[in-house]
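Quick one - first record:
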Amino acid sequence: MVKYFFVGFISLFLLTISYAQNKIGNGQTKTAIAERIKKNIEILASDSMEGRDAGTKGEIMAKDYIVSQFEKMGLTPFFNKQTSYLQSFDVNGGAEFGINLLKINGNLFKRNKDFYPMGFSFNGSVVAQVINVGYGIQAIDLNYDDYKNFPEIKGKIVVMELYLPDSLAAINSFFNYQNPEVRAKIAMEKGAAAVIFKNASPTKPNPSKILSNNNIPIAIPVIFVEKNVAKIISLNKNINAEIIVDIKREKSKTAYNVGGYINNNATYNVVIGAHYDHLGYTLTPNGKKIFYNGADDNASGTAAILELASYFKDTIKENYNLIFIAFSAEEKGLYGSEYFVESEEANLSDIAFMINCDMIGRLDSIKKQLTIYAVGSSPAWKKIIETTDKQGLSIIEKIQVGSGSDHYNFYTKNIPVVFFFTELHGDYHKTTDDSWKINYNGEAEIIKYIERFFETIQGNKKLPFQRSNIY
């Protein structure tokens, strides 16, 4: 009986090894990965998900699907002391523009074409003189003051540049002033009646026209003007303007971050994240819903973290514990990741680094260019990228951090980050970002690269952090 038990045990052991090898070996071919990505993206980016807008029925359906996948993999719930996959937080249910107006010296300009309110703008009407205050920074302790030549700005409309010059942006002490809301508040505290932002950079993007619904508005109107209006302002010394901002915001709704955990009994954690929310839908004049399915933005990144979670769950124990988080409300202003890093769940001192996957579904089959942003957030990244086997991919390194995706909130907490990205395209934030346009084989290559990238990182230490440029 002992003999037969031993033989049976060996047979079972060999069968288990064979299954594991099949799952890790055959299941890791590019074709197998591409098929799984395709399934997940087609589900997340289907019309039934109604565009996955944070706080809506579509987002709830998407988070339930992600939870089901984490459960199938056997990931430990991460939140509420590892009893729940979900972290809930409030977001505004929606926002829309009412009547918004800009007149400069009697000339009327159109919203969206010439100007638009910024997400943290207050509703109000202002008629006043316009003055240009450069970057709008007053930092006496740094011996810098853009207001020194304007002793009295009370009741005036101030104009300032959206981006700091590289010479200031590279100085750690000026980091907080990268945020336009911080500078708008300085103007408000000095008595300004309204703020106008403009962008002189030929390469840096304008602020999003999508309303950041979860913003708490500051107490004055704030708008952004396009280059044609900015030129008029810069060429004329005596300017008077009328500004009306009217944003109708709905009451708050609940959104959810989804988190799963692989406990390797390591000292430090690594966060691998992607946002799963998108823009919802728009209505035609006859009431038909047209969906922003967001296949690339960001069902592609969500499918990637599902694939990475499955891979690392089945591999040998790593040197870090792994936290996989699908963030919500990224499109409304990075609110899911902001809520996470500000919560007690984060344990920031234990996070070694963060990997962000956002829009990685459109790899060009010829150029095969994968962009890695935020390489400047740690002196360790360049060597790691240099050492990682590229296997045909062309890696574009960007030292700039980028403030438009969830890694940014980790960066503000002095955590090294990297952001994988296949760049913008003509379907960005449009209803045409559909699953059939995804390069599934290309995304499979990117996922395998991220696995190799992670495994290149030796040891179990926190990576060193450094400040870098923001775009």
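second record:
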Amino acid sequence: MVDIVVIGAGAAGMMAAYAAARSGAKVVLVERNHHPGRKILLTGKGRCNVTNGTDPQGIVAAFPETGRFLLGPVSRFTPDDLMRFIQEQGVPLKVERGRRVFPESDRSSDIVRALRNAAAGAGVQFRPDSRVERVDECKAQHDGGDNRHIFQIAFSGGGGGGGGVGGVQDVLGSQAGPHSQDALQCKAVIIATGGLSYPATGSTGDGYRFARQYGHTIANPFPSLVPLETTEKWVPQLQGLSLKNVTMRALSGEQIIGEEFGEMLFTHYGVSGPIVLSLSRAVVRAMQPGTGAAAFTAGKAQKVPAMRIVLELDLKPALDIEKLDARVVRDWTSISRKHFSNALDALLPKKMIPVIIALCGIDGDTPVNQITREQRLGLVSLLKKLVMTVTGYRPIAEAIVTSGGVNIKEINARTMESKLAPGLFFAGEVIDVDGYTGGYNLQAAFSTGYAAGVGAAEYCHKN
């Protein structure tokens, strides 16, 4: 029997295993995939925005609904602590715009390597290719004169367990002995299985099932930080066009529910990119009334907003209407005989010009010196407020983060231990915490993982 079994070798799981082993516990880290950290490899477009270079209060502020719960874990393992830990593993870091922290190499694989090497160095035993089927609570057993409360981890059949003649190549690249399908027994369990986003990486909601088994309630999972779908037919015409230094505002009815400045991307279904993902958090929440989780697990996007939601795109946020109009007048003074269709190169990307011409209603063959003041002001207004109507959002499988999960009111924020089942701990995205994009969610995973690892080790020492 081991002290602790950690289920899930993502950011939270590897950190939890490391922290528990470093605290003196005997730890087995179970992962359904052959290699750990598959979702980490995808983050930041393969670069891994590992954290945000702010203080604990800055991290907490990025989680509007659940930041108070995270204050303890993030204060216990801060962004500075995380950066120091990673750099001690030989991975230099850099800070970019918005205090986003990346490895200097721009390779997310370096972060995964740092985590797995640290865990292995602390004595963690890895068990890849092993999907957990059940987490059973056994009766207290007599062992060496003590009555011990234990869990039994049962694995599904088939390929799980990674067995085979001559052993299996484990995540550290060394030859590991073949794993059997025999159940593991332990004093404590840390569930770090992730949510429902990126199911190909192994996040398929197993953690919710384990939590329910012990009486936990699950806040309805839905996508967070996800691309948005729009209805306008001109949007797909701009597919692949990326815009920088623009401002986008989201409105639910008359209420502004979010505003972001930065980069966005047009797609065949709508819009994506950093500012869209940030806004999507508020947009998806505004669309939730009357929605069930079944649509997401079936891989379908939500299609019926409870209230009309629009996106207003400001293509020239550095200029107000008067200054932008003055710029247009100045640009056109020297090209007064040019056709309107050839007079927008200095204002817009080439791919966007036909769309703007169609939307503003000015004939492209009109010489600019014949365009009326009213027509020109209409163009300027369009550049300052290009409206798109949201019809839905992409499936949860395409979301960066899952919103929802194990109810935080049922978890001890200091140790991440269940308030309902002694010896059961949670870490990472399986918990109902999700924040803005910018490294905040990974920091939450590392901080809750660290707290769960230390908390589980303390539990084992006391029991």
